[in-house]
Amino acid sequence: MMTRAQLRKMIIDLAVMLVLSIMVISLGIYISYDKSNIREQQRYKALFGNVVKASSYEELKHDLVKETEGVNHVYLAYDREGRIIGYIADISVFDSEGRQLHSYVGINSDGSTIIGYKRINDEEDPIPLELNDIGTLSAQVMGKQMPIALSKSGFEDVDVVYSDYNPPAGLQDGTYYAQSLTKDKKGYIDYVEIEISDGRIKRVVWDGINIDPTTGSRNQASLTGAYVISGENWATQCYNVCHALIELQDVSRLAMKSDGTTEIIPGVTTNISAFVDLANECLDNSKAGFDKDQYLDTLCEIITSQGVDPESKKDSNGFIVYPFEDLSYFKKVGAPDTDLKTVYETTLTEDELTGQEGDDTEVTVTPKPASSSSSGGEDGIATDPYSSIISNSIDGIPLSEVRTFIQGINYDMGKSSGFISTINTTYKFFREYMNWIG
Q1: pLDDT of residue 50
Q2: CA pair distance 275, 243, nearest whole angstrom
Q3: Would you state the pLDDT for residue 22?
Q4: pLDDT value at position 85?
């Protein structure tokens, strides 16, 4: 018969064996899980390491991932201390022909800025983008805020502007350019570029380049919030002004008032006097056959005559960023003569040469048979006010939310649209997700 002491010893032995068994099983599970986790992290690092470099990754489990069209998965990226340093969005978009672009998009920790991009190249019917195209596109968005749009159109459905108006007589085909001779109070030098085709204004660009090379263009500054004006952001207002000139075909029809504003262009409250002066200069240059290359060559020679190397005053895009201190012998380029130093002789005041803000946005024009014409009235009174409705969204995102304009692949929306939609799909997710976690 088993004594009480023997029974107690047997129970203790069984308990010890049970604990040891549980420990062995737990250790086995832990080792197995750890190995599995290591393999998973190795796989993640191989996939995402050149998109967002991190110590570890974890898939985000949230209903919004399934609910957002085009979003396959979203992953969190952590540093060694377990802090979130970014996100990776697995995105698939399709073009109108059903071709796919499958990408990883890296986003910073606040969900606003693009920090990485990788095409997966596993599509059955891929959107035709070469490796160098992907490199060009991704380079244009690195470090930039979402959402994005193509700078040539900037908005949907306005690549072509139909005009009933007649242009000024005597315009010669070509590309014409003019820039302010002084900087404004914030260091910007305005420029306007106008392309004439078949005697009509086809394309208009207005922007400002800062004498501080770290500042960038006025367009970009307005989109990131570094440059703020009343009403719509400056990029949007600038676009509307360029759009209006292509529509109206004559600077006088913009009906600028004595204070530099206009009441006939929807959404425009900014001073447009710099644009009006430079646009008129471009059209004068067109009538004289004095194209952009001649203008810039002449400007370079003027700078050289002041003992300054013009190459040192060019930015990375070739713009001449040089505010003239002495305006005594300058005039607006219009009818150039053979003496380069008299080309720019001016009667303008420095305030009149000071620029406002502008958007490096381009649009094109296709004329309809002219049914009527109009001329501008005095001090903002127009006999036929400008009226036009433009699309206010891109990829279903309100225009007011666009933060970055890119050139894309040679301003070609057809080749760039899939990439743009990829970034904007990512933006749509993080816009909702960041609101949710906030």
Answers
A1: 87
A2: 13
A3: 78
A4: 93
pLDDT of residue 300: 86
Q: Is the pLDDT of residue 251 over 90?
A: yes
Burial tier of 23 (Cβ tally within 10 Å: 0-12, 13-18, 19+): exposed
CB environment 64-76: b (16+ within 10 A), e (fewer): ebeebebbeebbb
- Chain length of the chain: 438
- List the end-to-end C-alpha distance of the chain, in Å, as a whole number: 70
Whether residue 15 is predicted with pLDDT greater than 70 in this model: the reply is yes
Q: How confident is the model at residue 101 (pLDDT cuts 50, 70, 90)?
A: very high
Pairwise CA distance, residues 100 & 92, whole Å = 7
- 111 with 89: CB under 8 angstroms? no
Residue 351 has pLDDT above 50, yes or no: no
pLDDT at 167: 92
Q: If we measure between CA atoms, which residue out of 249, 268, 286 comes closest to residue 365?
A: 249
Question: 390, 318, 344: which is closest to 155 by C-alpha?
Answer: 390
The Cα–Cα gap between 288 and 290 comes to: 5
SS3 for the chain is CCCHHHHHHHHHHHHHHHHHHHHHHHHHHHHHHHHHHHHHHHHHHHHHCCCCCCCEEEECCCHHHHHCCCEEEEEEEECCCCCEEEEEEEEEEECCCCCEEEEEEEEECCCCEEEEEEECCCCCCECCCCHHHHHHHHHHHCCCECCEEECCCCCCCCCEEEECCCCCCCCCCEEEEEECCCCCCCCEEEEEEEEEECCEEEEEEEEEEECCCCCCEHHHHHHHCCCCCCCCCHHHHHHHHHHHHHHHCCHHHHCCCCCCCCCCCCCCCCCCHHHHHHHHHHHHHHHHCCCHHHHHHHHHHHHHHCCCCHHHHECCCCCECCCCCCCCCCCCCCCCCCCHHHCCCCCCCHHHHCCCCCCCCCCEEEECCCCCCCCECHHHCECCCCCCCCCCEECCEEHHHCCEEECCECCEHHHHHHHHHHHHHHHHHHHHHHHHHC
Triad 41, 47, 50: Cα angle to 5°: 110
Contact 101, 418 (CB under 8 A): yes
Residue 208 above 50 pLDDT?
A: yes
